[in-house]
Amino acid sequence: MLTTTRVFNFSAGPAVLPLPVLEQVRDHLVSLPGVGMSILEVSHRSKAFEDILHETEADIRTVGRIPGHYKVLFLQGGASLQFAMVPMNLLPPGQTADYLVTGAWAEKAAKEAKRFGHVHVAATTQAEKFARIPEPADISLTKDAAYVHMTSNNTIFGTEWKALPDVGGLPLVGDTSSDMFSRPIDVSRHALIYAGAQKNLGPAGVTLVIIRDDMLERSANASAGLATMLSYKLHADNESLYNTPPVFAVYIMGLVMKWLLEAGGLESIGRVNERKAAKLYAEIDRSGFYRGHARPDSRSLMNITFRLPTEDLEKTFVKESTAAGFDGLKGHRSVGGLRASIYNAFPEEGVDALAGFMREFERKHG
User: Fold this and answer.
1) What's the pTM value of the predicted model, to 2 decimals?
2) Which domains are seen in the chain, by residue range?
3) Could you list the active site residues?
4) If DSSP codes are grouped into helix, strand and coil, which group holds residue 269?
């Protein structure tokens, strides 16, 4: 077991990793079994790493039940680079891309796409401070849109799509960075899915992209005007090995996938995440001392945002919770208040401890 004391890490990301994964990385950091050197030293052209890459992809396909006509890519640049790569590869000249704007990251994705083509905001809840997910009646899609872009979970505002929007057969692109593999996902309803790893999948540094084959053909048609490294088709043709990939991050992602499989897969982890979130939302709703930001029917399982009666109390909450061994509870500056991020690897005992702290804090300051 680790000898250092670990706090409960509620950070929105980079986020908590499974303890068994961290322990395995520690034990094998100096010399990877069967290799004789650290994973930090292994060549990306070696059989050792190719085996790791292929095994990680196979486990991702198993976890996500990814159909065979989708490619799995390991890229760099985070979701922010995908904000550009998606329209550069998938938005042909003269066509329109639809964006469902549900928070700050969705806004950034739409803003970046406007640099490369015409963007239509098909729905937004900005006027309501992004406190809810759009209703079906709020969504106005463009006929023959090149694609429809959504952000499945909004870390800053604490909202999450409970079901995929009906896009009428248009290609659906999903930024799932903060809730990827936190519950079952229907990959077949997407044309492309991307996710920065640093929430549920692994450490910062690698971005998972799952892309349908017909979108790769669209990427191939766009490639003539693209910088080489920005082509999905090129990365797919080279099995994510065109340049040096983030070897260490891919390795840890592979370990996290095995941890997920051992935990029972997405159905099992989804039930755990629902139970964890329900405990904190029950505490928020219990007396009125705490006030949730997100509308109840739009609440995220991953990022729980809430306020206290005054900003001074919120500052006191952060100070006292930090002293009690809780880290990362200060809310984003654009929303204020508090935010508890409880991704897959966040332990349930930490949720119970925070709920107890919230009750005691209310007793002292309410």
Assistant:
1) 0.96
2) 23-262 (3.40.640.10), 265-365 (3.90.1150.10)
3) 105, 175, 199
4) helix
